[in-house]
Amino acid sequence: MAALFRSSLKLRPATRLSAVRTLTTTPHLRAAEKPFFPDEPTAPKLATAIPGPNNKAAAEKLDKVFDVRSLNMLTDYTKSTGNYIADLDGNVLLDVYAQIASIPVGYNNPHLRKVAESPEMITSLINRPALGNFPSHDWADILNTGILKAAPKGLNQVFTAMAGSDANETAYKAAFMYYRQRERGGPETEFTEEELETTMKNQSPGSPQLSIMSFKSAFHGRLFGSLSTTRSKPIHKLDIPAFDWPQAPFPALKYPLEEHAQENAQEEQRCLQETERLIKEWHNPVAAVIVEPIQSEGGDNHASPAFFRGLREITKRNDVLFIVDEVQTGVGATGKFWAHDHWNLETPPDMVTFSKKAQTAGYYYGNPALRPNKPYRQFNTWMGDPARALIFRGIIEEVERLNLVENTAATGDYLFAGLERLAKQYPEHLQNLRGKGQGTFIAWDTPKRDEFVAKAKGVGVNIGGSGVSAVRLRPMLVFQKHHADILLESVEKIIKQL
Amino acid sequence: MAALFRSSLKLRPATRLSAVRTLTTTPHLRAAEKPFFPDEPTAPKLATAIPGPNNKAAAEKLDKVFDVRSLNMLTDYTKSTGNYIADLDGNVLLDVYAQIASIPVGYNNPHLRKVAESPEMITSLINRPALGNFPSHDWADILNTGILKAAPKGLNQVFTAMAGSDANETAYKAAFMYYRQRERGGPETEFTEEELETTMKNQSPGSPQLSIMSFKSAFHGRLFGSLSTTRSKPIHKLDIPAFDWPQAPFPALKYPLEEHAQENAQEEQRCLQETERLIKEWHNPVAAVIVEPIQSEGGDNHASPAFFRGLREITKRNDVLFIVDEVQTGVGATGKFWAHDHWNLETPPDMVTFSKKAQTAGYYYGNPALRPNKPYRQFNTWMGDPARALIFRGIIEEVERLNLVENTAATGDYLFAGLERLAKQYPEHLQNLRGKGQGTFIAWDTPKRDEFVAKAKGVGVNIGGSGVSAVRLRPMLVFQKHHADILLESVEKIIKQL
């Protein structure tokens, strides 16, 4: 028995077997394929109604000290394996939400366990460096064999950060400094007395009224700068002061794409034109445009590679930086390591931000002029966390060892075909199916979305939504065709209950 | 031999002994005291000029991919022990800067090593949760036995974050939501259509023009909201758009305090009056005032407990929230666990933010109304990192086991007395000595500050500055009297070289 997981995990029995209802699937439908993790459950297991008594009690306890109103489920990570997530009542669900799209190589991945037990990890955890001042002797190696090994084409440097929001905000800061440096005439030009004085009062010209342009329905984070570029839902933004920054329209494509090719092309053209107009005319000059390859939180909104190539051209033509936010799309989920690899850009983005599946964060860049002209302009105490950088290195190794990008592309195609069949069968419940050729980064609209998502646990699946009416699939990179079979059957079961 | 460190560390010999110059100290000056870490070096060791050849080569390599212009020294953390930091050339320095005040219990602390090797740590590292949605079964326990065990008096809840900047910014967000909720008439009042629409355009009333008040010379972080409250140095702020928020004057006290009691009280009174005037008159209404107990990055500026009590009264009287930023002062360094414990407040601060020595971050609060009225208003994917929360728990355990707050208070008094003697001897080089009774959180001004800090490594000490002319001491909580002796001798050696 190839007990790779079991031996290193010392798994307790996942559920009390007497009470367990294992959700079997129709055998002839199951794709035959070698599982990445031999000890993964073969199907979800339901032991109680969800949430069960243990989960309810634990939530009540946690609520005393920690806001649990956004709680989905208390999780027993020691009992979660591969694509399966366990709660505290013996329920084990197929997880296609994966910690809001942030788990890449499965729960309790044995290779990551080795990384977590390594001497480098121990020293990173107990001797946390101020990376800008006192990086460790092996920090260059950790970067070169990890974060930078995965760097997008054309970008060979990194500024490390903690999470998606500050990754984006530090990229914005780099963009503003670059913009003003160019206005000043280069890195050698000193700041004026007026700049030095006004910035201490938060006033222009020292604190200039420049802007970052984002797109309608975009999500780029929740801190003050990133939230000013987030345009997905009012609930994220209400009551929080924001910068007077512009938003461009994002294409609203019609599906199926092949039936609306001309309309969609026109729609994208309209959005590009409006984007360029806003860059030229917005009263607070635009230093950079930021865009997600697929708007995720905002409802899984796609645009074509031609649209993004057009955007790159516009930013070039108007001397505006082009930032691609790959926080949710990055690290393999779309069937390429970076989603913007689908675009065939002539010149790379100026900056690419990452987080989530990378388990660490930051922005990549290539142009040396994006390093601010003086030290301590882009700086903070920790500037990321080497412990999490080591985890990303382990993830990259696992992606290579198991060919997980290729797996995700192939599994995604298989899953998409299955969903297309279901969409024909249940057109009312599976509208605007999208993400074809984008790995497992697949979504559709459904009129009873919240009900759909809520009922999913009852058939053994943990699934998420995005935007107002979309079901978004965000399985891990270790999601295989036999998992897709279970998911497809589960989707049908849910639809039949609606 | 009580080889607690050596056995768990498997330390390689720290330096090539033949080349090493051990900096011995005058024996009769050394305080007799049981060292916390028997295997800590007894004195700094210098093997090369600093930076040595290995450090230079490593810096050159790192610079290719990572901006190293703020580099202080490449560090070999595997060879660093307790209060001593090692570089790549065999130099071992007494570290009184401690990763910008963020290492509390010594390099390679054996208890933290055990925490790092624990099953809870491994699972936290390889199964990173989205804490708001899928917290682990033991998250309440981890909080209650860790972060919340150390909670300031009167504050019993926490919102966890990644680092100081987002800890402060999420506290600001809570303050803005609280302010607007009160204006609306309570948590039950629904948002208006106008609010929902305008916030998507970053416009008032949905995105209101409210403000956070901070103080001149304050430092609260470097993201867009926190940077708008940072007022320490132009280099942090230049070229970055900022909110139109007010800054109040921070008292400029004269030293020695006992010789300027009346003047200083008047100065504090003046600042309090101006603070209240700004709260009443600033065109963007003030939702909260944030203050550091000791302005750290801004130059180690102190104010009296009476000043802070006055501030608490003003905020109460004007219905403005009072946020205490304990990112640098918290976790024992001032001889109390929280620096604001020195103030004897009648009512606790509304929020207290923490990071650095906690090795994780967030804000504490007590008033349940500071939880936003709906879920997902204060939220992000990770909301901190349980791995780092486990480290903080280990730090708290170590602080308790070794009585490190008491140690820091006593060592601080001892060190301060020694510095007072030096100040009498070298009044030109040790001006405005401050931090009496504040543990080891001690600083002074010196006309040749940068030169002083640069020369420190040559006598075996790693030391930092703050503001324009201050030398700031930020030793760890495991800094003992025998370390203070070495530091005092080193300070004198440096002064003699100036």
Automatic annotation (TrEMBL), chains A, B:
Its cofactor is pyridoxal 5'-phosphate. It is an enzyme of class 2 (transferase). One of its GO terms (cellular component) is mitochondrion. It catalyses: 4-aminobutanoate + 2-oxoglutarate = succinate semialdehyde + L-glutamate. It comes from the Eukaryota. Belongs to the class-III pyridoxal-phosphate-dependent aminotransferase family. This is 4-aminobutyrate aminotransferase. It comes from Aspergillus sclerotioniger CBS 115572.
